[in-house]
Amino acid sequence: MTSLLLLISTIITIFIWLLIANAILSWLVAFNVINTNNQFVSTVGNFLYRITEPPLRPIRRVVPTMGGLDVSPVILILLLIFLRNLLFEYMPLSM
């Protein structure tokens, strides 16, 4: 059971980092620091969009943008951290 909890925790952590990478990439594209015509940037951006958009879409429907700022990744990160902490609270590691 410990292995399963650690695997779920690792997957949640990786997904949080993917959300952060997607937010940073979107800022870099918005401020013209990087160009999406570059094939590598386009591939990474497409991958991050396909991975992070499905869980962000329901949050974006409920929470409006605040002055052009999308806070849905922050809300999802907080929910994922809460879920990870909840898993360890109800199923503690036996070491």
Structural class designation:
mainly alpha
> Number of DSSP helices?
3
From the spread of the alpha carbons, the general shape counts as globular
Helix content: over 70%
- Provide the succession of SSEs: HHH
End-to-end separation in angstroms reads 12 Å
Q: Kindly state the mean pLDDT as a whole number?
A: 92
Can you summarize the main beta sheet? none
Brief overview:
The protein has 95 residues and is mainly α. The protein has three helices and no strands.
Q: Which key phrases capture this entry?
A:
95 residues, mainly alpha, 76% helix
Written overview of the protein:
This protein is an all-alpha fold. The chain is built from three helices and no strands. Helix 1 (2-30) packs across helix 2 and helix 2 crosses helix 3. The longest helix is centred in the N-terminal third of the chain and has 29 residues, at 2-30. The radius of gyration is 16 Å and the shape is globular. The relative contact order is 0.17. The model has no long low-confidence stretch (mean pLDDT 92).
Draw up the topology in text.
Layout: H1 2-30, H2 39-62, H3 72-90
Helix pairs in contact: 1-2, 1-3, 2-3
